[in-house]
Write a structure and sequence with these properties.
The protein has helices at residues 4-19, 21-35, 37-58, 65-80, 82-109, 113-120. By secondary structure, the chain is mostly helical.
Length: 122
């Protein structure tokens, strides 16, 4: 049973993380990607093509080299879009922030917080 105090502490931590500069930068960059028709379209097309190709492979179909090349070209376009690059860079900073917080929690708790969190997420 989780105590009310622990729930309040967890809520405070979540609010602090959400208001951190790295998370706010990521949320803005993500919103910019969603709002931009080109960036949004590129990501939707890449996801749809990926799902199609994986589905076909799972059904035993062989993919043509030209289809794989088309996928790789689209993937490159996605990864070179300035807004997507900015969002992905911001996400890397968020991941580092969360890693730092997990490390900060691990020592005082006497446990490896990341391992505990992963064990409880499945």
């Amino acid at each position: 049973m989780i105590t009310e105090e622990l729930q309040n502490c967890a809520r405070d931590l979540g609010e602090a993380l959400r208001s951190s500069a790295s998370v706010q930068t990521y949320l803005k960059a993500q919103a910019d990607c969603i709002a931009d028709p080109e960036a949004s379209d590129l990501e939707k097309r890449l996801q749809a093509l990926y799902q199609e190709l994986v589905g076909r492979q799972q059904r035993g179909e062989a993919l043509q080299r030209s289809e794989i090349d088309a996928y790789n070209i689209l993937k490159s376009q996605v990864h070179h879009n300035p807004l997507i690059m900015e969002r992905d860079a911001a996400l890397s900073l968020v991941k580092q922030t969360f890693t730092d917080v997990a490390d900060d929690l691990s020592f005082p708790l006497g446990i490896e917080f990341t391992t505990l969190a992963l064990a409880n997420s499945t």
